[in-house]
Structure formats: structure tokens, C-alpha cells
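tool_call: predict_structure(chain=1)
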Amino acid sequence: MRILMLGNSLTTANHMPDMLAELLTADVRVHARGGARLAEHLNPKTRNGALTQAALANEAWDFVVMQEMSHGPATSPAAYARSVAALSEAVKSAGAQPVIYGTWPYRAGCAKLVKLGMSHDDMSLRMAEAFAQAAADSGALLADVAAPFRAGSADELYAADGVHPSPAGSRLAALVLAETMGKGIRPWWTT
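tool_result:
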């Protein structure tokens, strides 16, 4: 299995792609930089865009995982949806299955959450709606990593900044992605 991951520090934190590779016995490649948006992968004039366009044109992939900037689906859902739609078309044209990496809302009380002027629940709802709509519109699989972050007390899943995942959060993300791609279905907690 060959997987291309497009994202930023939520993807690369704690070497999560290596965890995913081990879980699926897969070749996992990553095109990411801190703070990156998916739109970069559509623009061949950016470093990530050039790499992604070349990878889709010249290599065979089974899955392409798409992860947006941490608050993008909540604060810019229309732009997020456009990026997912365009990338999904490119991914499907290359013979691969697009996968949305549905990330989590910021931890309640986090300084960055306060700066956005949202509550944890509001950000969670906005992100869940954006991910579900983008998946439905694009035909992408949804790896809903946010679901277990919403369930019960998830403080141990966050790093100290309240935005990035802890090692346990990254491990959970790898497990959700592996289940989604390993079976090509939604994880058990979304049914």
C-alpha cells in the first residue's frame, strides 16, 4: 500500500506517518510544512504544490490523505471545501482514493481557541460539519479523528499548547487513519 499525506504539523507531530506506516505495513510519504493549507498542494508554484502535482502525475498511490490547517475547516469552510473538491478530483484522476484527515477542535480554554472567539463545542461542531460535507461532496473517505477527541475527557490526547496532539493523540490519529484506509470504511465509532 502506498499513501501520500498532505498536511502540516498536525500530520507530522510525534512522527505519526511512521506510526501509520507500521500499522498498515505501507509506504507513507509526506508533503507538509507547519501551518500549511491544502490550497498549497493545488498551486505548482509552491514547494508543496510542485511536489504534490509531480507525485500525483508520476507515481502510483492507493490513498492520498488531506489535512487542512488546524482551524481552517471551522473558520473558512467554503475555502476548505473548494480545496478538498479540487484535490479529490486530482487524486481520483491519478487512480487513488482521497481521504480527509478530520482533525480535532482546540482544547477548551486554549489561548488560540479564545483568540478565534469560539468555544470548544462551537469549533467542534463547525469542523464536524465541514468534514462531513466535504466528504459527501467529494467522494473522499472521512477519517474522523476528532470523534474520539470529543468523547469523554480527551486532555491526554492534546499537547501542552492545546492545539497539537500528544504522542497518545498522534497514535490515535494513526489508528483511525489505518482503520479507515485498511478497510475503506468509516471507523467503528462513526456508524
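agent: The longest strand covers residues 2-7. Proceeding to next step.
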